[in-house]
Amino acid sequence: MNRHFLGDTAVLLGRSLRHITRSPDTIITTAIMPIAFMLLFVYVFGGAIETGSDSYVNYLLPGILLITIASGISYTAYRLFLDMQGGIFERFQSMPIARSAVLWAHVLTSLVANLTSLVVVVGVALLMGFRTGAGVLGWLAVVGILVLFTLALTWIAVIPGLTAKSVDGASAFSYPLIFLPFISSAFVPTESMPGPVRAFAEHQPVTSIVNAIRDLFTRQPVGTDIWTALAWCAGILVVAYMFANISYRRRIS
Protein backbone atom coordinates (compact mmCIF):
# COMPACT_ATOMS: atom_id res chain seq x y z
CA MET A 1 0.00 0.00 0.00
CA ASN A 2 2.81 2.42 0.91
CA ARG A 3 4.60 1.62 -2.35
CA HIS A 4 1.35 2.17 -4.24
CA PHE A 5 0.80 5.51 -2.46
CA LEU A 6 4.37 6.71 -3.04
CA GLY A 7 4.31 5.74 -6.71
CA ASP A 8 0.95 7.45 -7.32
CA THR A 9 2.08 10.57 -5.46
CA ALA A 10 5.29 10.74 -7.52
CA VAL A 11 3.37 10.47 -10.80
CA LEU A 12 0.83 13.13 -9.81
CA LEU A 13 3.60 15.35 -8.43
CA GLY A 14 5.33 15.18 -11.80
CA ARG A 15 2.08 16.24 -13.47
CA SER A 16 1.71 19.26 -11.17
CA LEU A 17 5.34 20.29 -11.51
CA ARG A 18 5.06 20.20 -15.30
CA HIS A 19 2.20 22.68 -15.04
CA ILE A 20 4.45 25.01 -13.02
CA THR A 21 7.39 24.72 -15.43
CA ARG A 22 5.01 25.68 -18.24
CA SER A 23 3.86 28.68 -16.21
CA PRO A 24 6.90 29.96 -14.25
CA ASP A 25 5.19 33.33 -13.88
CA THR A 26 3.40 31.96 -10.80
CA ILE A 27 6.73 31.67 -8.96
CA ILE A 28 7.78 35.11 -10.17
CA THR A 29 4.44 36.60 -9.09
CA THR A 30 4.75 34.96 -5.68
CA ALA A 31 8.17 36.55 -5.16
CA ILE A 32 7.32 40.02 -6.50
CA MET A 33 5.16 41.22 -3.62
CA PRO A 34 7.56 40.17 -0.81
CA ILE A 35 10.46 41.71 -2.73
CA ALA A 36 8.45 44.92 -3.16
CA PHE A 37 7.76 44.98 0.60
CA MET A 38 11.46 44.42 1.28
CA LEU A 39 12.51 47.24 -1.05
CA LEU A 40 9.89 49.58 0.40
CA PHE A 41 10.71 48.99 4.05
CA VAL A 42 14.50 48.92 3.65
CA TYR A 43 14.91 51.93 1.36
CA VAL A 44 11.90 54.07 2.37
CA PHE A 45 11.04 53.27 6.00
CA GLY A 46 14.23 51.57 7.18
CA GLY A 47 15.98 54.76 8.25
CA ALA A 48 13.10 55.71 10.53
CA ILE A 49 12.69 52.32 12.22
CA GLU A 50 14.82 51.58 15.27
CA THR A 51 15.44 47.85 15.66
CA GLY A 52 18.83 47.75 17.33
CA SER A 53 20.18 45.82 14.35
CA ASP A 54 23.17 46.95 12.27
CA SER A 55 21.27 46.29 9.06
CA TYR A 56 17.51 46.57 8.70
CA VAL A 57 17.42 44.03 5.86
CA ASN A 58 18.92 41.48 8.28
CA TYR A 59 16.15 42.25 10.76
CA LEU A 60 13.44 42.27 8.09
CA LEU A 61 14.21 39.16 6.05
CA PRO A 62 12.68 36.47 8.34
CA GLY A 63 9.27 38.18 8.15
CA ILE A 64 9.58 38.63 4.39
CA LEU A 65 10.23 34.88 4.02
CA LEU A 66 6.99 34.10 5.85
CA ILE A 67 5.08 36.59 3.66
CA THR A 68 6.53 34.83 0.60
CA ILE A 69 5.12 31.50 1.79
CA ALA A 70 1.73 33.00 2.68
CA SER A 71 1.58 34.55 -0.78
CA GLY A 72 2.58 31.34 -2.55
CA ILE A 73 0.06 28.99 -0.96
CA SER A 74 -2.85 30.83 -2.58
CA TYR A 75 -1.80 29.12 -5.83
CA THR A 76 -2.25 25.74 -4.17
CA ALA A 77 -5.88 26.54 -3.40
CA TYR A 78 -6.27 27.92 -6.93
CA ARG A 79 -4.84 24.83 -8.66
CA LEU A 80 -6.81 22.49 -6.43
CA PHE A 81 -10.02 24.39 -7.14
CA LEU A 82 -9.43 24.18 -10.91
CA ASP A 83 -8.85 20.42 -10.68
CA MET A 84 -12.07 20.01 -8.71
CA GLN A 85 -14.07 22.09 -11.20
CA GLY A 86 -12.43 20.44 -14.20
CA GLY A 87 -13.51 16.96 -13.16
CA ILE A 88 -9.94 15.70 -12.71
CA PHE A 89 -10.72 14.28 -9.27
CA GLU A 90 -13.67 12.28 -10.60
CA ARG A 91 -11.43 10.90 -13.34
CA PHE A 92 -8.79 9.89 -10.80
CA GLN A 93 -11.46 8.17 -8.67
CA SER A 94 -12.24 5.84 -11.57
CA MET A 95 -8.57 4.80 -11.70
CA PRO A 96 -6.63 2.56 -9.29
CA ILE A 97 -4.95 5.51 -7.57
CA ALA A 98 -4.47 6.05 -3.85
CA ARG A 99 -6.96 8.77 -2.93
CA SER A 100 -4.62 10.64 -0.59
CA ALA A 101 -1.95 10.79 -3.32
CA VAL A 102 -3.99 13.46 -5.13
CA LEU A 103 -3.82 15.86 -2.19
CA TRP A 104 -0.21 15.09 -1.35
CA ALA A 105 0.84 15.83 -4.93
CA HIS A 106 -0.62 19.33 -4.63
CA VAL A 107 0.97 19.83 -1.20
CA LEU A 108 4.43 18.76 -2.37
CA THR A 109 4.08 20.93 -5.48
CA SER A 110 3.39 23.86 -3.17
CA LEU A 111 6.50 23.00 -1.16
CA VAL A 112 8.74 22.91 -4.26
CA ALA A 113 7.28 26.13 -5.68
CA ASN A 114 7.54 28.01 -2.38
CA LEU A 115 11.12 26.90 -1.75
CA THR A 116 12.01 28.17 -5.22
CA SER A 117 10.38 31.53 -4.47
CA LEU A 118 12.24 31.69 -1.14
CA VAL A 119 15.56 31.19 -2.93
CA VAL A 120 14.71 34.10 -5.25
CA VAL A 121 13.83 36.35 -2.30
CA VAL A 122 17.00 35.44 -0.38
CA GLY A 123 19.02 36.15 -3.53
CA VAL A 124 17.53 39.66 -3.77
CA ALA A 125 18.15 40.18 -0.03
CA LEU A 126 21.82 39.31 -0.55
CA LEU A 127 22.03 41.94 -3.29
CA MET A 128 20.49 44.42 -0.83
CA GLY A 129 23.16 43.72 1.77
CA PHE A 130 21.80 40.80 3.79
CA ARG A 131 24.57 38.97 5.59
CA THR A 132 24.47 36.13 8.09
CA GLY A 133 26.97 34.33 10.24
CA ALA A 134 24.83 31.20 10.34
CA GLY A 135 26.67 27.98 9.63
CA VAL A 136 25.40 24.85 7.91
CA LEU A 137 23.43 23.69 10.94
CA GLY A 138 21.87 27.13 11.35
CA TRP A 139 20.76 27.19 7.73
CA LEU A 140 19.40 23.65 7.99
CA ALA A 141 17.38 24.71 11.04
CA VAL A 142 16.01 27.74 9.16
CA VAL A 143 15.08 25.59 6.16
CA GLY A 144 13.43 23.05 8.47
CA ILE A 145 11.27 25.73 10.10
CA LEU A 146 10.30 27.19 6.70
CA VAL A 147 9.42 23.73 5.33
CA LEU A 148 7.24 22.98 8.35
CA PHE A 149 5.58 26.40 8.09
CA THR A 150 4.96 25.86 4.35
CA LEU A 151 3.38 22.46 4.93
CA ALA A 152 1.15 23.87 7.69
CA LEU A 153 -0.12 26.74 5.55
CA THR A 154 -0.46 24.54 2.47
CA TRP A 155 -2.79 22.13 4.28
CA ILE A 156 -4.82 25.18 5.31
CA ALA A 157 -4.92 26.17 1.62
CA VAL A 158 -6.24 22.71 0.69
CA ILE A 159 -9.47 23.38 2.63
CA PRO A 160 -10.69 26.40 0.58
CA GLY A 161 -9.35 24.70 -2.55
CA LEU A 162 -11.81 21.87 -1.90
CA THR A 163 -14.76 23.86 -0.53
CA ALA A 164 -14.73 27.27 -2.28
CA LYS A 165 -17.52 28.15 -4.70
CA SER A 166 -15.40 30.44 -6.89
CA VAL A 167 -11.79 31.04 -7.93
CA ASP A 168 -11.67 34.25 -5.92
CA GLY A 169 -12.95 32.47 -2.83
CA ALA A 170 -10.32 29.77 -3.20
CA SER A 171 -7.40 32.21 -3.13
CA ALA A 172 -8.73 35.13 -1.05
CA PHE A 173 -8.22 33.26 2.25
CA SER A 174 -4.46 33.94 2.01
CA TYR A 175 -4.81 37.72 2.39
CA PRO A 176 -5.12 37.68 6.21
CA LEU A 177 -2.14 35.31 6.38
CA ILE A 178 -0.05 37.69 4.26
CA PHE A 179 -0.75 40.64 6.57
CA LEU A 180 -0.38 38.72 9.86
CA PRO A 181 3.40 39.35 9.92
CA PHE A 182 2.71 43.11 10.02
CA ILE A 183 1.28 42.63 13.54
CA SER A 184 4.33 40.79 14.83
CA SER A 185 8.02 41.36 15.43
CA ALA A 186 8.71 40.98 11.69
CA PHE A 187 9.04 44.71 10.92
CA VAL A 188 9.46 46.43 14.29
CA PRO A 189 10.16 45.24 17.84
CA THR A 190 6.95 44.47 19.70
CA GLU A 191 8.08 46.73 22.57
CA SER A 192 7.19 49.76 20.44
CA MET A 193 3.55 48.68 20.04
CA PRO A 194 0.60 49.86 22.20
CA GLY A 195 -0.59 47.44 24.91
CA PRO A 196 -3.37 45.37 23.24
CA VAL A 197 -1.54 45.20 19.91
CA ARG A 198 1.68 44.19 21.65
CA ALA A 199 -0.14 41.45 23.58
CA PHE A 200 -1.53 40.02 20.34
CA ALA A 201 1.78 40.36 18.49
CA GLU A 202 3.77 38.58 21.19
CA HIS A 203 1.37 35.63 21.42
CA GLN A 204 0.68 34.88 17.77
CA PRO A 205 2.70 32.25 15.85
CA VAL A 206 4.50 34.58 13.41
CA THR A 207 6.45 36.37 16.16
CA SER A 208 7.99 33.22 17.62
CA ILE A 209 8.82 31.89 14.14
CA VAL A 210 10.38 35.19 13.04
CA ASN A 211 12.38 35.49 16.28
CA ALA A 212 13.69 31.93 15.97
CA ILE A 213 14.81 32.43 12.36
CA ARG A 214 16.36 35.83 13.19
CA ASP A 215 18.33 34.33 16.09
CA LEU A 216 19.55 31.50 13.87
CA PHE A 217 20.71 33.97 11.20
CA THR A 218 22.57 36.08 13.79
CA ARG A 219 23.91 33.06 15.70
CA GLN A 220 22.17 34.15 18.88
CA PRO A 221 20.79 31.70 21.46
CA VAL A 222 17.31 30.80 20.24
CA GLY A 223 15.96 30.07 23.71
CA THR A 224 12.34 28.95 23.87
CA ASP A 225 11.35 30.72 20.64
CA ILE A 226 12.36 27.81 18.44
CA TRP A 227 10.31 25.32 20.47
CA THR A 228 7.33 27.68 20.48
CA ALA A 229 7.72 28.13 16.72
CA LEU A 230 7.90 24.38 16.11
CA ALA A 231 4.90 23.78 18.38
CA TRP A 232 2.83 26.37 16.47
CA CYS A 233 3.81 24.93 13.08
CA ALA A 234 3.21 21.32 14.13
CA GLY A 235 -0.12 22.16 15.81
CA ILE A 236 -1.41 24.10 12.79
CA LEU A 237 -0.20 21.33 10.47
CA VAL A 238 -2.01 18.56 12.38
CA VAL A 239 -5.29 20.48 12.68
CA ALA A 240 -5.24 21.66 9.05
CA TYR A 241 -4.39 18.14 7.83
CA MET A 242 -7.34 16.67 9.72
CA PHE A 243 -9.85 19.25 8.44
CA ALA A 244 -8.48 19.03 4.89
CA ASN A 245 -8.96 15.27 4.82
CA ILE A 246 -12.46 15.58 6.27
CA SER A 247 -13.31 18.10 3.53
CA TYR A 248 -11.79 15.82 0.91
CA ARG A 249 -13.78 12.78 2.02
CA ARG A 250 -16.99 14.79 2.01
CA ARG A 251 -16.27 16.18 -1.43
CA ILE A 252 -15.55 12.85 -3.10
CA SER A 253 -18.18 10.80 -1.27
From TrEMBL:
Segments forming domain ABC transmembrane type-2: 25-251
GO biological process: response to antibiotic
Transmembrane segments: 27-47, 59-81, 102-130, 136-158, 170-188, 226-244
Membrane association type: Multi-pass membrane protein
Keywords tagged on the record: Antibiotic resistance, Cell membrane, Membrane, Transmembrane, Transmembrane helix, Transport
UniProt cross-references to InterPro entries, sorted A to Z: ABC2_TM, ABC2_TM_bact-type, ABC_2_transport, Nod_factor_ABC_transporter
PROSITE patterns, alphabetized: ABC_TM2
Recorded GO CC terms: ATP-binding cassette (ABC) transporter complex
Record GO terms (molecular function): ABC-type transporter activity
Family: Belongs to the ABC-2 integral membrane protein family.
Record's protein name: Transport permease protein
Organism: Planosporangium mesophilum
Upper classification of the organism: Bacteria, Bacillati, Actinomycetota, Actinomycetes, Micromonosporales
